[in-house]
Amino acid sequence: MSEEKIIDGMQYGFVPNRHLWYFEYYTPGNCGIFMKMNKHLYSAQSKYQRIDIFETDFFGRVFSLDGITMTTEKDDFFYHEMLVHVPMFMHPNPKKVLVIGGGDGGSVREVLKHKSVEKVIMCEIDEMVVEAAKKYLPVTASKLDDPRVELVFEDGSQFVRNFKNEFDVIIIDSTDPTAGEGGHLFTEDFYKACFDALKENGTLSAESEDWLYDGAWLRLAYSRIKKVFPVTKLYLGFMPTYPSGMWGYTFASKGIDPIKDFDPEKVKNFGEELKYYNEEIHKAAFALPTFLKKELENL
Amino acid sequence: MSEEKIIDGMQYGFVPNRHLWYFEYYTPGNCGIFMKMNKHLYSAQSKYQRIDIFETDFFGRVFSLDGITMTTEKDDFFYHEMLVHVPMFMHPNPKKVLVIGGGDGGSVREVLKHKSVEKVIMCEIDEMVVEAAKKYLPVTASKLDDPRVELVFEDGSQFVRNFKNEFDVIIIDSTDPTAGEGGHLFTEDFYKACFDALKENGTLSAESEDWLYDGAWLRLAYSRIKKVFPVTKLYLGFMPTYPSGMWGYTFASKGIDPIKDFDPEKVKNFGEELKYYNEEIHKAAFALPTFLKKELENL
C-alpha cells in the first residue's frame, strides 16, 4: 500500500482499506481528526452529498456529510445550544421560527424548549438526511415529529424568498460551505432575503465556520451579514469535533443588541434543561481573542 | 500490514511506516489528531521522555513529548497567553516569578512582557527539552537567555519546597500528567508547597488539561488546588492543537479574586503586543458551560 493511496483516502474522508477508522481531513491545514469506528450504520449518496452515520465508543453516534463531521452524540449540544439560544433569548417573544438546514434536528429540538414558540419551519434541502436522522439519530431528531414543526425539503436559500416580515427568529444551520450545496447559504443575496423575511424585532444566527483553517469563510459570512443587518456580532463557542474546536457564529438583528439588550434573568428562570448555554456563557461568547477582533475591525 | 499494527503505531504517537504523518492519539476517546509532517528536525529519548520537533506547512514547527503535542508555532500564543497573563495581571506588582515546567520557553516569554518583573526562575526537569527548544523553537525560546531569567534543571515539585514567602506569581506549565514525570505536578502536596512559596499577594495558574477526554485530571487538579488555596477558579481557553480544543486552567490566590479584583484598564494600557488575551477575554474565560459548572460545584 503506497503512501499516495493513503493520502487520497484521507482526502475523501474515509480510508477505504481501513474501515474501522474515520478520518476527517481539514484540507487547508493538511491535518484532521480521526476516530475509531465500531459500526457503520448508514451510508448513502443522496442527490446532494454523501451521508454517513456510524457508531463509536466515545462519541456515540457520529453523522457526517461528504466526510465532514456534522454531529456526534457526545458534543451536539455544544453547537446546537450556542447556535439556537443566543438569537432565541434575544427575541422578546419568539413565536415563529425558521431553521434553514439543520437536517439532523438538533436546532429544532433547542428551539422548542422556548415555550412561546408556536411554529417552526425547518427547510432542509436533503430529505434523505432527515430520514436518516429520524432513524439513527434520536438524540437530535427527537422533536421533528412535534406538531409545531413543519418540514420542507427545498433549497433554503430560495425558500426564504417566499416570506416578507414573517419570522421572529431565523437560524442558519448550514453544512460546511464546501460540502454539498452549503455555499448557497453564505451569499449576500441570501442574507438579504433573510432580513426581509424577519419581522421588526427579528433576530438571526448563522453558523460561521472556524477561524484557524477556514478563516476565509468566517470573514465572508460575517462581512456579508454585516452589509445587510444593522446589528451584526460574531460570537464563539467550544466545539470539540469541529475543526480547531473554536466555532464561529454570527448574531444579527434589525436593532436588538446581544449584549446591551440581554436579560440574564430570562435565562436563569428558563426552566428547561440546558447543558452548555447559560447567562454567563452568553456574554462571554462575544468576547473575541485579539487576533480575531482585529480582523473583524478591518472588514 | 495488519490493522493491529496501525493501531499500535498510533498509540505510540508516530506511525512508524508512515513517517510523513504525525498522529496524536487521545487514548480515552479512541481518537486523535493528525498532521502532515514535512521534516523531522529533532528526535531524542531523554531520561524522562521522548522529545520530537518537526516541521509542518500549516502549524509551522511542532514540539511533542511522548507523542503529545506541547507547542506549535501556529497556536502557542493561545495557550501561553492564557496561562500567564491571568495570574500576572491579577498581581498588583509582580517582581519575582517561578515557572514550573514550561521548557519550550513560551511562558517565560509572556512573563517578561510585564515590565515590573525583575526575576523569573524557570524550573524544568528536562534540560534536553530546553536545549532542543533553544535550537529549534525560537518562537517560544526567544527570551530564555534574558538576564532576568534563571534556568534550573530539577524536579519542580521538589524545587519549590526550597522557598517560603518568596514569589509573587507561580505558573505551573506542566506537561500532560500521563507523560514523563508530569504527574508530580498534580499532587496536593505540591500545591501546598506552591502556596508556601508564594507571598501574601501571590497568584498562581496551573494548566489543568481538558474536560472531554481527561476530565479526571481536570477535576483532580482543580479540587486539590481548592483544598490549599482560599481562592480557586477554573477558566477556559481555546487551544486548537490540544485535545478537544477546550483547555482548562486553574487560577488560585491567597485572597485576590480574578473577577472582582480585575482591573481592565491595566490590560488596555499594557503597551505590549498580545494576540489572544485581552480584558474581555479575561472575564469571559471564567464563564463556564453549565455541564462544567455543575461538576465543579460537586467537588
From TrEMBL, chains A, B:
Superkingdom of the source species: Bacteria
Domain (PABS) spans 19-254
| InterPro entries in UniProt | PABS (IPR030374), PABS_CS (IPR030373), SAM-dependent_MTases_sf (IPR029063), Spermi_synthase (IPR001045), Spermidine_synt_N (IPR035246), Spermidine_synt_N_sf (IPR037163)
- The residues listed in the UniProt record as binding spermidine, with positions renumbered to this chain, are H80, D104, D173, S174, T175, D176
Q: Which CDD domains match?
A: AdoMet_MTases (cd02440)
Q: Where does S-methyl-5'-thioadenosine bind?
A: Q49, E124, D155, G156
Pathway assignment: Amine and polyamine biosynthesis; spermidine biosynthesis; spermidine from putrescine: step 1/1
Q: Which residues cross the membrane?
A: none
Q: State the Pfam families in the record.
A: Spermine_synt_N, Spermine_synth
Q: Biological process (GO) annotations?
A: spermidine biosynthetic process
Quickly give the catalysed reaction.
S-adenosyl 3-(methylsulfanyl)propylamine + putrescine = S-methyl-5'-thioadenosine + spermidine + H(+)
Active site (record annotation): D173 (proton acceptor)
Q: What is its EC number?
A: 2.5.1.16
The protein's enzyme class: transferase
Q: Name one GO molecular function term.
A: spermidine synthase activity
* The UniProt record lists the keyword RNA-binding: no
Give UniProt keywords alphabetically: Polyamine biosynthesis, Spermidine biosynthesis, Transferase
Alphabetical GO CC annotations of the entry are:
cytosol
Q: What does this protein do?
A: Catalyzes the irreversible transfer of a propylamine group from the amino donor S-adenosylmethioninamine (decarboxy-AdoMet) to putrescine (1,4-diaminobutane) to yield spermidine.
What is the similarity comment for this entry?
Belongs to the spermidine/spermine synthase family.
| HAMAP family in the record | Spermidine_synth
Subunit and partners: Homodimer or homotetramer.
- What is the protein named? Polyamine aminopropyltransferase
Q: Which organism is it from?
A: Thermosipho japonicus
Upper lineage is: Bacteria, Thermotogati, Thermotogota, Thermotogae, Thermotogales
**Name of the gene encoding the protein in the UniProt record:** speE
